[in-house]
Amino acid sequence: MAQDAPDAVDWSGARHAPAGSGARIACLVPSITELLFALELGTQVVARTGFCVHPRLVVRRVPKIGGTKDPDLVRLRAAAPTHVVVNVDENRRDVVEAIARFVPHVIVTHPQEPDDNPRLYRLLGGVFGRAQLAAALCAQYHAARADLDRTVAPLPRERVLYLIWRRPWMTVRPDTYVAATLRAAGWDTLPASAAQRYPEVAEDAPEWREAGRLLLSTEPYAFTRRDVAALARVHPRPVHLVNGEWTSWYGPRAIEGLRSLAALRVALTAERAPPP
Predict the structure, then answer these.
(1) CA 149, CA 185: separation in Å to the nearest integer?
(2) Residues with Cβ < 8 Å from 155, sequence gap 6 or more?
(3) Which residues of 231-247 are buried (b: 16+ CB within 10 A; e: fewer)?
(4) According to a count of CB atoms within 10 Å of the terminal CB, is the N or C end of the chain lower?
């Protein structure tokens, strides 16, 4: 039966039956909102967060119901969704439990590495009747991943400090999706272990000295080239700005992210190569 197919099982272990053409979908995960549009489900998306900004030209028609951590549940209820898509990292458990009391179907996602994307495509494609489109996205993903692997294979691995916040400085633990994406690109994140998924980095922490490169993400903190210049004056190692969507977004943007990271690795490696 369709509801027992592996692709209909979400990250909580719940099995989801095919939704039918009348499904009304609310999404509290920015990258997955974009995926729903890529699966040609945009007309069925009835609510989104203020951070769901892609695809920019068409997502604006979908009503916003607040943020990922604090959505307006009154407005969500008024949108009358049959399905809500949530994420373990993005959304609070208490909020998801409250939503489950009035929305029939809550689809829980938790990709932990870029290679979880095909499963995500198949899950939503299977539930919402877009299996062929999901398969096409899977093929694009696998091609991008293969290209990245070929690009990175001859390059030296590097230890990096990937900063996502300042005041205090914060980074990512190795078991996060972001760190896994960077690792696929040949960048091993510091610290090698931490108690928190997004640990603080003290001004005198050894990671500043151990990293061969400092990478500043454009999200969630919007680091700029001015921040790059300021850090470069303090720390004698290469400092670069990285588009945070390349490393942290699931869905179709993960495909673009892998290709962009491959190009960035080549460019930065060439910068450090000694002259002939």
Answers:
(1) 8
(2) 186, 265, 266, 269
(3) beeeeeebbbebbbbbb
(4) C
Q: Which of 117, 185, 180, 182 is nearest to 151 (CA)?
A: 185
Query: Two tokens at 1?
Result: 């039966």
Q: Are strands 105-109 and 158-163 parallel, antiparallel or unpaired?
A: unpaired
- Hey, which residues does 109 pair with through a beta bridge? 87
Residues 39, 126, 91, 49: is their CA dihedral positive or negative? positive
pLDDT digits (tens, 9 = 90+) for 226-264: 999 999 999 999 999 999 999 999 999 999 999 999 999
Closest CA to 66 of 41, 84, 82, 47: 47
Please give the model's pTM, rounded to 2 decimal places.
0.93
Helix axes 117-127, 30-38, angle to 10 degrees: 60
Residue with tokens 């989104």: 48
Whole-angstrom CA distances from 127 to 9, 27, 236 are 9, 14, 51
Give the residue among 12, 252, 258, 39 at the shortest CA–CA distance from 144: 258
pLDDT tens digit string along 166-221? 999 999 999 999 999 999 999 999 999 999 999 999 999 999 999 999 999 999 99
Alpha helices in the chain (DSSP H): 30-38, 56-59, 73-78, 93-100, 117-127, 131-152, 177-184, 207-210, 225-234, 244-248, 252-272
Cα pseudo-dihedral 176, 107, 14, 141, rounded to 10: -50
d(C-alpha 71, C-alpha 129), whole Å: 27
- The answer to whether the CB of 215 falls within 8 A of the CB of 240 is yes
Return the structure tokens found at 164.
């996502």
